[in-house]
Amino acid sequence: MEMVEDVVVVGAGIAGLAVAVALKRVGIGALVLERSEELRATGAALTLFPNAWVALAALGVAHKLTSVYAPCTRGFMTNVSSGVIQDVSMTGKASAAAPRSVHRKALLEALAEELPINTIRFSSKLTSVEAHKQDDGSSISIIHLKDGTVVKAKVLIGCDGVHSVVARWLGLRAPVNSGRSAMRGLAVFPEGHGLQHEIQQFVDVGKRGGFVPLTDKELYWFLVCKSTSKGQDMGGKPELIRREVTGNVAKDFPPIYLDVVGHSDPSTLTWSPLLFRLPWDVIFGNACKGTITVAGDALHPMTPDLGQGGCAALEDAVILGRHIGESFIRFGRLVPQETAKAIESYVKERRWRVSLLIAASYLSGWMQQDGSGWLMKFFRELIFNRLLYSRIIDAVRYDCGKLPTVSSSGELKKQD
């Protein structure tokens, strides 16, 4: 079977769906190829900071989520060893909007609802990519799927995650292992958990955990620790994950945290190694070739210590949509050479931004978890937690801009 499309987006995760919505907003249809049989919600939930809400507003879906999920204005960080509790502002020095934690599935569904029926083609696993030169000097992407289908596209955008086939084809170096792993889950209290809408974090040497309420009955929890050989056997074994967290890795954490983990919905429990792309590989790597590029984790996998993976993916979508959209509206169609220039401009705009996020996330994780000596404790508790953390929170604030539209006179303009 052979298909011909203007734009193909690989992956129906946050990045892929957001890119498709951004393109739709500027008048460009896209086919989204997803390897799973339905929308995947691995990770249960995520916290979206103000930069993500700016992007979601540009995509026209922010209102669907802000009406359901309340902001988290306060947080507390407890040192497990000493018992010292620090108040952490979730709005930073800039007094900007507070973050909100949302169900990952709700975010995916909010994005998917904006797309025309049949935009997403499920059970479509990408196996390889080719680029063929055309007579006019442009190139066309040849996408091979596992079921034998071949898709030809003028534009290919890889949003296919950490182990991206498209990123590998472009020549980007593979992500590296941080030496840490993350456990995540969704705790359900049918009668209500009775906790305030605040982010609670617990830090010990080599590990950091926490939870945040999503609703009055559900809490999202996480635990990041140094990787062990046991972690390799945890995948797909929810009860084993829960026992390992409560009985071993987090056994010294306060009872309230262990109780939250104990109420986990087994279907939401995950254990996975944390990978990230080295910042200089993003800065100097080849993130585009002609009309082929990547976005989201395919471009900038990072550790979750600043909660910026999904936020940065939403930024990618708006900025990519802005650059391609301006070219499309100006010429009234996808002109290969001009679209290639637009994609190159997108990559140029994103390189330093996401590289800094990768570095800041890694530094934040290392500073909060590693080292038990007095000097490290002093720097972590008195300098990092009290002074630097709020500045880092401010640093992740970012306005990705708005998507272009066409005025009644046919002129290019930005959204209001």
UniProtKB/TrEMBL annotation:
The keyword Electron transport does not apply. Keywords: Monooxygenase, Oxidoreductase. InterPro entries: FAD-bd, FAD/NAD-bd_sf, MOase. Residues 6-327 form the FAD-binding domain. SUPFAM superfamilies: FAD/NAD(P)-binding domain. GO terms for molecular function: FAD binding; monooxygenase activity. Gene3D superfamilies: FAD/NAD(P)-binding domain (3.50.50.60). Belongs to the 3-hydroxybenzoate 6-hydroxylase family. This is FAD-binding domain-containing protein. It comes from Nyssa sinensis. The lineage of its organism: Eukaryota, Viridiplantae, Streptophyta, Embryophyta, Tracheophyta.
